[in-house]
């Protein structure tokens, strides 16, 4: 219960926040661009007289009479970060540093609703006021908004001795409720500590969804309690699997950092690893992916690693439902990603029972519908919203009718044809997560992983100018930053776009390159989904974002995130000298 003194203090601070906010909101954001850097850029940031003061050596963060395990964890984490980071900006801020005001002693945190769960579209807004005198104030509707505000405050502290920006007001909230990373841990294994580091890096970039593509044809690294043989036989080894304790550690770490963990158990395709334990429920398992002399249309998989679950075998659903039930228990997240992408006709056609089904007038789309009708209702019965890749309704050859997937229980994730497929999905009434391979696939442009590939035997140029990969070229941070995920949509259609995810498929990625593949390119998406990619006049702001991203990349490296550089240090030390002043012809 909040006592009268605390209520009065909260009321006083709320009035102070409103007063300072009204006083400074009339000042343009551009007035502070050279003075302080926050990533992602806040929605409203006002600092009429850029100045800083010392941070007290006994500085504290306090949340009076507010008990919440994840808020307490975040406060402890940020207090330690603030006191020990001592970030030195690459370009010193232009501001008035004063010692005539007392050092900032306290940041007071107030949360209106301590019970709001970390679900999609939870309120992540916050207001932050740092006056020239007295305590700083952070107010948020939820714990998760408070975490975003704590991150912003941490970026307003720098130097040795520690200094903090004062006399400023920030109001902030995300434009999109879903801001994520998809990581494939089947093709190559990532130890738990690498996943935790990635989630921590997501949190400081104000991202909130870790989409965990756990299993695929290559390995089944998740130890499912009711089906232990799937991991025992389908993983790369006993030292390369995830136990229920590992999953719980990752889920709890996510909650401590305001990041949801969405599991994906891809099926019916991408299930070759299941055949190690259950060969009778997997078609075309362990067969060569593209038989010699056959056309591409007759392949068994789109890359090495074959296997589809057999929709006509009742045992398929016995095993799969046990897996789904256990995964839903391990992951409290309300979204369950069921995959359903890249079903290859040749793989199903390799099975005698399916051959008989087709010869009797059945179709491959009917086969998929049997599978969906046997699994979708079960997942929904577990109080889950089902996420599928777009293929389930948009694939040219094998798809289900939209009547099989009620929009109220279904979300589709798009990865092909950019804006075109996004438009198709929302026009059908479905909510959508955007992961366009043309813009958001982080693995693109690194060549292909196939051996004995004659396309690289050239003496005049590279194979096709696309980096040798199907989705090349490499997606630069500028490409990611400038992508507008609601382009060409009506207001009503845009409201169905939940947000976006970058994707790192791991054919050619593992822990050794994880950080550099993801960061700082993903920071570019993080900002566009948080506050957009345009300034107050509507102009794309990629030019000024370059200097800010340079600074933020440097700070991430200081925080233990192995983000790759985007420019030589010379460019950072000589602002503007590396910019274009006219477009390329």
Automatic annotation (TrEMBL):
What does the record list as coiled-coil region(s)?
none
Gene Ontology annotations of biological process type: carbohydrate metabolic process; glycosaminoglycan metabolic process
EC number of this enzyme: 3.2.1.52
Does the record bear Signal in its keywords?
A: yes
Source organism, top-level taxon: Eukaryota
Q: Which GO terms describe its cellular component?
A: membrane
Start and end residues of each Beta-hexosaminidase eukaryotic type N-terminal domain: 38-156
Catalytic activity field: Hydrolysis of terminal non-reducing N-acetyl-D-hexosamine residues in N-acetyl-beta-D-hexosaminides
> According to its UniProt record, which residues of this chain constitute the active site?
342 (proton donor)
Q: Which Pfam families does the UniProt record give? A: Glyco_hydro_20, Glycohydro_20b2
- Where in this chain does the record put each Glycoside hydrolase family 20 catalytic domain? 176-532
Does the keyword Amino-acid biosynthesis belong to this entry?
no
SUPFAM superfamilies assigned: (Trans)glycosidases, beta-N-acetylhexosaminidase-like domain
| Enzymatic class | hydrolase
Similarity field: Belongs to the glycosyl hydrolase 20 family.
Can you say what this protein is called?
Answer: Beta-hexosaminidase
Which source organism does the UniProt entry give? Quercus rubra (Northern red oak)
């Amino acid at each position: 219960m909040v006592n009268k003194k605390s209520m009065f203090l909260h009321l006083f601070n709320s009035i102070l926040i409103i007063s300072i906010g009204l006083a400074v909101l009339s000042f343009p954001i551009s007035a502070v661009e050279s003075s302080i850097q926050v990533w992602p850029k806040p929605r409203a940031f006002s600092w009429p007289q850029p100045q800083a003061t010392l941070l007290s050596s006994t500085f504290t963060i306090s949340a009076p009479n507010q008990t919440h395990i994840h808020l307490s964890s975040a406060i402890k984490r940020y207090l330690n970060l603030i006191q020990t980071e001592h970030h030195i900006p690459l370009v010193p801020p232009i501001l008035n540093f004063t010692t005539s005001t007392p050092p900032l002693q306290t940041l007071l945190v107030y949360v209106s609703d301590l019970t709001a769960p970390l679900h999609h579209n939870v309120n992540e807004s916050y207001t932050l006021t740092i006056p020239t005198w007295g305590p700083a104030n952070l107010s948020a509707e939820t714990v998760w908004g408070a975490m975003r505000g704590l991150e912003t405050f941490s970026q307003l502290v720098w130097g040795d001795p520690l200094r903090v920006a004062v006399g400023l007001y920030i109001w902030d909230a995300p434009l999109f409720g879903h801001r994520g990373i998809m990581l494939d841990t089947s093709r190559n294994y990532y130890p738990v500590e690498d996943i935790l580091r990635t989630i921590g890096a997501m949190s400081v970039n104000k991202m909130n969804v870790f989409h965990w593509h756990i299993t695929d044809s290559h390995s089944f690294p998740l130890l499912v309690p009711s089906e232990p043989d799937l991991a025992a036989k389908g993983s790369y080894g006993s030292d390369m699997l995830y136990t229920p304790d590992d999953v719980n550690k990752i889920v709890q770490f996510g909650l401590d950092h305001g990041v949801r963990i969405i599991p994906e158990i891809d099926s019916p395709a991408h299930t070759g690893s299941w055949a190690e334990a259950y060969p009778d429920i997997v078609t075309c398992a362990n067969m060569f992916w593209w038989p010699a002399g056959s056309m591409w249309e007759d392949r068994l998989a789109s890359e090495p690693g074959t296997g589809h679950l057999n929709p006509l075998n009742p045992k398929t659903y016995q095993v799969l439902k046990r897996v789904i039930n256990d995964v839903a228990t391990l992951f409290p997240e309300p979204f369950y990603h069921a995959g359903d992408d890249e079903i290859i006709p040749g793989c199903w056609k390799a099975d005698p029972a399916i051959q008989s089904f087709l010869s009797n007038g059945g179709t491959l789309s009917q086969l998929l519908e049997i599978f969906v009708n046997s699994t979708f209702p079960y997942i929904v019965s577990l109080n889950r919203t089902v996420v599928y890749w777009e293929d389930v309704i948009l694939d040219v050859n094998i798809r289900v009718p939209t009547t099989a997937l009620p929009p109220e229980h279904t979300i589709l994730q798009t990865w092909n044809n950019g804006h075109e497929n996004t438009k198709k999905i929302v026009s059908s009434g479905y909510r959508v997560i955007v992961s366009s391979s043309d813009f958001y696939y982080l693995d693109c442009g690194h060549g292909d992983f196939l051996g004995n590939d004659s396309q690289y035997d050239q003496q005049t140029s590279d194979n096709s100018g696309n980096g040798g990969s199907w989705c090349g070229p490499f997606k630069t941070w500028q490409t990611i930053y400038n992508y507008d995920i609601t382009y060409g949509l009506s207001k009503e259609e845009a409201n169905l776009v939940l947000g976006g995810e970058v994707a790192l498929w791991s054919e050619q990625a593992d822990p050794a390159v994880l950080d550099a593949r993801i960061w700082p390119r993903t920071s570019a998406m993080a900002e566009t989904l948080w506050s957009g990619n345009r300034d107050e006049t509507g102009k794309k702001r990629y030019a000024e974002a370059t200097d800010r991203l340079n600074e933020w990349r440097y700070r991430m490296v200081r925080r233990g995130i192995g983000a790759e550089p985007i420019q030589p240090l010379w460019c950072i030390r000589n602002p503007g000298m590396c910019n274009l002043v006219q477009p390329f012809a």
